[in-house]
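tl;dr need the bound structure. longer version: we got a ligand (NAP) that a collaborator sent over and nobodys looked at where it sits. i said id run it. heres the input, straight from their email, havent touched it
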Amino acid sequence: MKKLNIGILGATGIVGQNYIRLLQNHPWFQIIDVAASPRSANKTYKEAVEQKWQMAIPIPHNLQNLIVRDVQDFDSMSNKVDFVFSAISLPNKEDIKNIEFKYAEKGIPVISNNSAHRWTPDVPMIIGEINYEHVNVIPIQQKRRGFKKGFVVVKPNCSLQSYLTPIYALEKAGYKLDKLIITTLQAVSGAGYPGVSSMDMVDNIIPYIDGEEEKTEREPLKILGTVGEDGIINNNSIEISTTCTRVPVIDGHTASVNIHFTDKIPKKDEIITIWRNFKSIPQELDLPFAPTQPIIYLENIDRPQPKKDRDNDKGMAVTVGRLREDNVFDYKFVSLSHNTIRGAAGGAILNAELLVTKGFIK
Ligand code: NAP
């Protein structure tokens, strides 16, 4: 297969750097365009990023001399770009929405990590293993907005897949849930670079992340929703209450989750079997970034741990442990996923693979 040519918007940031790292040797995609803020524009990628490079590999040789484009400089973009990943961070969400739609208008599919379009009803918010059929909103979006080839697809907040995938697996097995209480312990890389200052973070926990609790409580409702005539219709059958904290961990968002079933309550062993056997479309299609086993359950009483478990299956698996009965709800468990891989660049690459397979990116 001839490789598709891709661009990275926000290529100099933490998520952007992860795209650069993860896409080295991707069998279907090759990077030909890197873009960032006007501060980085017209520098080589190496010059723009070397002071803030955070990856454990050197800046790839083949990309060091690519000239960084201003994200809004459409004239300098190669007409060979087939689609872009967006990992830009701007203070005003409206600016991000406009930029991403502008790419779509110009015929370029956008797969975004940003939260700006997560609540646009005709923009699907996809976790490959859960709501892959939401790609069917794309023709609705294209028709409504007059896009011919382009469109915008987003992925959800970086902490969400760690608990939503296990919850979805239970729902799919016929055990509906109606109440969740979630406390997240989120890594510092989730705040981008340079993020939270070390004086604030070392020897400390910060019990507040701006906007995060709202995202954690609302986004699952869209992901578990259905495709309607004008876009996604939310599923409001689950009530969610969250507390989101920032902890001194570099990578890997952990969540402590209490769950309540609507009526039928499965046995503990059954839950673990459901999780271990859960597979979905990315596994059936054998997509390059699909984890072999999307949910890994560990019996050890002191797992999952970010340091030991975040990289399971290329950082794409969700690792769960400590399933036990709850005195107030039915059960509680601890789950973990890699925020910049499964929760950002890796999750978006998996979405792109899905969109290629389904014929939306050609
Ligand atoms: P980051 O490290 O702060 O990087 C931000 C990127 O945006 C940089 O490439 C920066 O370019 C670019 N940028 C800043 N101002 C810009 C402007 N005015 N015009 C165009 N580009 C501009 O942030 P990040 O952590 O990579 O996050 C990127 C996006 O992904 C955010 O929307 C974030 O919410 C989302 N996200 C992050 C994570 C995570 O775990 N970190 C997970 C999921 C989603 P310069 O280098 O030139 O300034």
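gonna send this back to them w/ a short note. The radius of gyration is 20 Å.
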